[in-house]
Amino acid sequence: MADNDLDKYLSDLGIDTHEDESSPLAPTPYVEAESFAREDKGERLSYDAPVSTVSGDYTERCESFLVTLLLNLDPGYATEVREVEGGLEANIYGGDAGKIIGRGGRTLAALEYLTNAVVNKDESVPHVRVSVDVGGYKERRDERLRGVALKAAARARKTGFAVELEPMSAAERRVVHMTLADDAAVESESSGEGKNRRVVVKPR
Amino acid sequence: MVTELVAFVVQNLVSEPERLEITTREGAQGLFIEIRCAPEDAGRIIGRGGRTINSIRTLARAASEGQERVEVQLSNP
Predict the structure, then answer these.
(1) Could you list the residue range(s) of the whole structural domain that residue B52 is in?
(2) Strand stretches in B1-77, DSSP E
(3) What is the helix (H) or strand (E) element at residue A168, kind and residue range?
C-alpha cells in the first residue's frame, strides 16, 4: 500500500497518523466501535486465552514480554535486552523492521510505551525506563535530530532570530532539547499544541 | 494472531488476568475485539488520556498489516 493510500485508509478509520503520542484519547474510535457493534455481522466468539503473564526481574519480564509479543507480529523478529544506566535497552532485529516502526515511528512508540507499562506494573517498586529500538532506527533518528538542532542553533546565533523547527513527537523534541541544553548562545522551548507542538530555538 | 496479541498485552497490564473476558467478532467491516475486565483494572487498560488503549490499537493494527480493519474496545458493564 502506498503511503498516500495508507493515510487515506487510516483517516477513513478515524485515525490521525500525525497525532502526537501524548495527545488525549480521540473520541472517534468509540463511535467507530459502536457502528461496528450495531452492524452485528459475524458471529461473536469468546476468546479463551490461556493466561500467560511474564515474571522474574525487570530484564526477564521485559525479554519474555517482547519475545511473546513479537511472535504474534512476525516470527522473524529476534530481541536482545541489556541493562544500561537508568534502565533497560531492548533491540529488535530481523523480520520486517518497517512493520514494527510504523509511520513516523508510531508503532515503535506504542510498543515502547506498553513495554514500560508491563515491566513497571508493580507500583510498589521503583520504575525503570525501557528504551526499545528496531535495527538502530532510533539511533539514526536521534543522530539526524542532533544535526537539525545544531543547524538551527547556528542559524539563531548568526541571525539573532528565533528558529522554529518542524512539529515533532515528545521523544524527538526531547533529543533536540538535550542537544542544546549546554549551548550558552541559544535556548530551546516547545510551543504549540498536540500534533503541531514544535521546538523553537532562540538566541539567549 | 491479532486477538492473541491483544489478549497477551492486556493480561500483562491488569492485576486480575483471570477475570478478563475477550470476545471477537469478524464482520464485513473487519475485526472487532471487545475486552471486559475487573472494574479496578479498567484504568490500567485505558491509561492516562487513553494512551494505553490507543497503543494497544496501534499494535493490533500493525499485526493485521492493513489486511482488515481492527477495533479494540473496553466495554465494562
Answers:
(1) 2-75
(2) 21-27, 30-36, 70-74
(3) none
Provide, as residue numbers in chain A, all residues whose Cβ is less than 8 Å from the Cβ of B17.
51, 53
What's B7's domain CATH number? 3.30.300.20
Closest CB from A15, A54, A99 relative to B62 = A99
Task: Using the structure block, give the residue that is written with the C-alpha cell 478515524.
Answer: A14
> Which CATH fold topology does A139-203 show?
Ribosomal Protein S8; Chain: A, domain 1 (3.30.1370)
Helices (H), ranges, A23-136: 28-39, 58-73, 97-101, 106-119
Give me the number of domains chain B comprises: 1
Complex ipTM: 0.94
pLDDT number for residue A27: 39
pLDDT of residue A125: 86
* Domain positions in chain A: 5-135, 139-203
Q: Which of A20-29, A121-130, B22-31 has the lowest mean pLDDT?
A: A20-29
Residue in A7, A41, A47 to test binding to B, most B beta-carbons within 10 Å: A47
Q: Which residues of A touch B37 (CB under 8 A)?
A: none
Q: What is the pLDDT of residues A19-46, one digit of tens each?
A: 444 444 443 444 445 555 555 556 778 8
Q: Is B62 within 8 Å of A102 when comparing Cβ atoms? A: yes
Q: Note whether B38 contacts A: Cβ–Cβ < 8 A.
A: no
- For residues A168 and A20, is the Cβ–Cβ distance under 8 A? no
Mark yes or no for CB contact B47/A47 under 8 Å.
no
With cut-offs at 50, 70 and 90, classify the pLDDT of residue A132.
very high
Chain B residue with minimum CA distance to A33: B71
- Find the DSSP H helices in A88-191: 97-101, 106-119, 137-159, 170-180
B58 contact A CB<8A: yes
Residue A33, pLDDT score: 52
Q: Are B71 and A14 in contact (CB under 8 A)?
A: no
Q: What is the CATH number of domain A5-135?
A: 3.30.300.20
